[in-house]
Amino acid sequence: MRKPRIGIVCTVRKTFDYLTAYSLYKERTAEVMKDGSVEWVNYPEMVIEADEAKRAGEYYVDHHVDALIIVSATFHLGHLALILNETVRRPLLLWGYDELPYDGGKIRLNAVCGVNLNASNLYKGGLDNYVVHVGNTIDEDWVKAIKMMVALKNAKVGLVGYHADGFYNVGVDELHLYKELGILVKHYELSELFSGEANPEEVAKEKESLLKTFNAKKLTEAQIDAVAKLVVLANHFQEQQQMDVIAIRCWPEFAKCYGVSPCAMMSILQSRGILFACEGDVEAALSMVAVRAAGEQTPFMADLSQVNYQENYALLWHDGVAPCNLWDGRCVRSLETYFAGGKGVTADFVLREGNMSIFRIDSARGKTRVFYEEGKAVPMDKLLSGTYAKVIFDHHISKVIDTVVYTGVAHHVIMGYIQYKKAMLCLARIMGWEVIDVERNYF
Question: Which class is domain 153-436?
Fold first, then answer.
């Protein structure tokens, strides 16, 4: 996945202390550009007049920026941001510096008023692609949102098979996805994933790693070999197809056609940063891409399950696919065969505790929405099969469930051990997506 390319430009007016402001701009921009996860494109001159804004905009077009930061280092002419926006046509951060101490009773920067001017012009011009930030350091949440946007728009998404039988709610309108993100889902048959040749030495190496990671006493030797081989085959498939995430119709046919389900394989490869979504859920797959771009290397696709209204918790559970590196380090991390007539080989363990969040990109009735909630994963004993975390959300679980069911959010969410609410809100604003708000009464 490529780095986002973000432009940054300084706008000033000579009637203010513009030389000091530009000096501050260069100092602060140098600090910003230390972030090597972004390709920064800094315009080399101050922008004061309209023709300079036009040249700066063309510079950013030539450099193919994904987003633009317009710094109001001082107050400035009102049409500069409009000209830049019209030329570049990318999401904007309107950044204003804190005011400097007064010098002889004169306002030295008046930067926030410049931000206000830009925002008002853009809003009244029918544009909502901007986020406002006031302060002397960059808005890291906006930068994170741009990373999420770029990751989504450049995502290579594979769908192996179709969505699981009867799971119509995770089906997608692929041309709607194209309209929203410019991506095309690549389709494959199930057999393309598991019918290739696997090098015996690679299989043996994966088998050794598997037995070090999991207690596999409940599996037959043939099942262990099948899982190890599938890890090799799936890894090669991902490398050959160069997919950023793969959604798999993991039941009902997979275990019958291959011999074991893909759950354990997904747990292993996801711990290495290779993303898989269960049950052919493409929007969950995209959500995983976004969560990884926000900073979670090994997100977990889960069901909101085992809800307890009285004790105010839920289990984020799924059939043994959580990345095995998320293990709590206390329970026995094992492989089980409790479904699909003994062929459903899954990982079984409790996930570690800590601050967490859930997220989903979800479309319905012609709209794309985002759902997000924060909470904490708490310790629990290993009481059932599968992979799961016991979670207490910031809002009561009854409120979370009401929000999900009365807005039709699909039954899969993406869990991570990071929290990024403001970045999520910035992403939704940039993309024009509806935010499903837990605090709103949908009933």
Answer: alpha beta
